[in-house]
């Protein structure tokens, strides 16, 4: 599973074929091939969002609560009312090139709401992506921690948005976590079809040009500090900025 260790945790990406924890996806992980923000380990359906239909369209009330940790950067939590329909375009600009995203607010409104809020506040600007997993059965780049340790976050967490039918083919954008309902700021970008359990909220897709950028990053290799889950990229990967819209 993809985890973040200690609610400022080490994210790990867990593969179905062999549970690999991928440290750093949500926060720092412990070296398996999994994407997790580390705090508990099984996925769960979030019971804490409610949808309402208003003149402005469908909305959801989200719960963002303190995770007990100091944020890696000073940011405000997102507003609780989130759009629950349509998609948004976003771009992650890296030192390797752009990664274009389509954010799915209809399927994961609270997750998209958080990502957009953090992006608008500059939380992701000039931050490293500390881990890449490029093993048999999965391929991901983990980002979203300004400290670059895999243990940093935004100081709040929020519940999963899962159907139980999630899959993680190449081109998937998903949250790292530390167990059920421990999403924070860390996320992972899938560049190869990956066999993970349906434990990680999927909140968007990556465009073809973005996949090429990710392949270029993967080609540089990693230090393989964690044999099961990859390691730090051999050539540092930096998110220069995230632009929404």
UniProtKB/TrEMBL annotation:
<comment type="function">
    <text>PPIases accelerate the folding of proteins. It catalyzes the cis-trans isomerization of proline imidic peptide bonds in oligopeptides.</text>
</comment>
<dbReference type="InterPro" id="IPR044666">
    <property type="entry name" value="Cyclophilin_A-like"/>
</dbReference>
<protein>
    <recommendedName>
        <fullName>Peptidyl-prolyl cis-trans isomerase</fullName>
        <ecNumber>5.2.1.8</ecNumber>
    </recommendedName>
</protein>
<dbReference type="GO" id="GO:0016853">
    <property type="term" value="F:isomerase activity"/>
</dbReference>
<dbReference type="Pfam" id="PF00160">
    <property type="entry name" value="Pro_isomerase"/>
</dbReference>
<comment type="similarity">
    <text>Belongs to the cyclophilin-type PPIase family.</text>
</comment>
<keyword id="KW-0413">Isomerase</keyword>
<feature type="domain" description="PPIase cyclophilin-type">
    <location>
        <begin position="97"/>
        <end position="244"/>
    </location>
</feature>
<feature type="compositionally biased region" description="Low complexity">
    <location>
        <begin position="38"/>
        <end position="54"/>
    </location>
</feature>
<feature type="signal peptide">
    <location>
        <begin position="1"/>
        <end position="23"/>
    </location>
</feature>
<feature type="compositionally biased region" description="Polar residues">
    <location>
        <begin position="58"/>
        <end position="68"/>
    </location>
</feature>
<dbReference type="InterPro" id="IPR029000">
    <property type="entry name" value="Cyclophilin-like_dom_sf"/>
</dbReference>
<feature type="region of interest" description="Disordered">
    <location>
        <begin position="28"/>
        <end position="88"/>
    </location>
</feature>
<keyword id="KW-0697">Rotamase</keyword>
<feature type="compositionally biased region" description="Basic and acidic residues">
    <location>
        <begin position="70"/>
        <end position="79"/>
    </location>
</feature>
<dbReference type="InterPro" id="IPR002130">
    <property type="entry name" value="Cyclophilin-type_PPIase_dom"/>
</dbReference>
<keyword id="KW-0732">Signal</keyword>
<feature type="region of interest" description="Disordered">
    <location>
        <begin position="221"/>
        <end position="245"/>
    </location>
</feature>
